[in-house]
Amino acid sequence: MSHILKNKNLEIHIDSPLENYNFSRFDWTGKIVKVLFQNIPLSSTENNDGQDEHCFGKGFYNEFGINSALGFDETNKGDWFQKIGVGLLKKEDSIYLFNKNYEIKPAKFEITTEPNRIVFICKSEAINGYSYILKKEIELHNSGFAIKYYIENTGKKDIITNEYVHNFISINKDSIGSNYVLKFPFQLKPQLFEETVNPEQKVEIGLNEIKFNGSPNKQFFFSNLSGSENINAAWELTNLKSNIRISETASFKTNQVNLWGWKHVISPELFVNIFIKPGQSTEWFRNYDMYNVN
Asked: So what CATH class is 3-174+256-288?
């Protein structure tokens, strides 16, 4: 069943791990599917063309290892590898593709709920020397929420991966366009971007902000916005029509910031690098805050 955290300003809807979304990409722990701020929706979906919604991202879904899942390269075809927060996936090809529909053996999940927070625990099987315990806590604040992560390496091999939240955002269902301003706490360096996809030239890159001169009918994407510089992990998005701002600040420095979007959604992404020796653990958090700009 869906869980709801709610106070006078905020309402967060969170699906249980085995509920609705059942694809092999996004983390099943803490699937934040909907966020309302003062009854105004802030969340959107990855795809709105009528395809099966349970195969696509929405709300504030996160993912571990978008470029290569844990242990994939050393796994033989036909055997299983780890996708953190999901379970075991069956290897069928020599290249890992995040959007491929892999066969899944789900991990074991536990849920604890309190009035202002919910805790998910994901315990993996041991496969090819890899195993872990993932704990994720979503905590409601007065005008925001926090996502707290803890991973323990219970296997025999190092865990080397990354994690990000896709942040599928649309403020009050307003199409992406001139009403939006996205700001970062660092200088944008287009000449150092790893990839630039801006087919309609509707995305305008400023010194430390991104604006739009129209609503993009085609998808846009920019990677490595800081030029690999290690910077404070943060962004803020303002909708000038609704006068609402949402921001994310994280506990880590990041050297990878990406941006993806379409006419109905904008997704700033802050990546955290993860390296855990066997028997050790790591933790980090992300804070989201919502404001009335006036």
From this structure: mainly beta
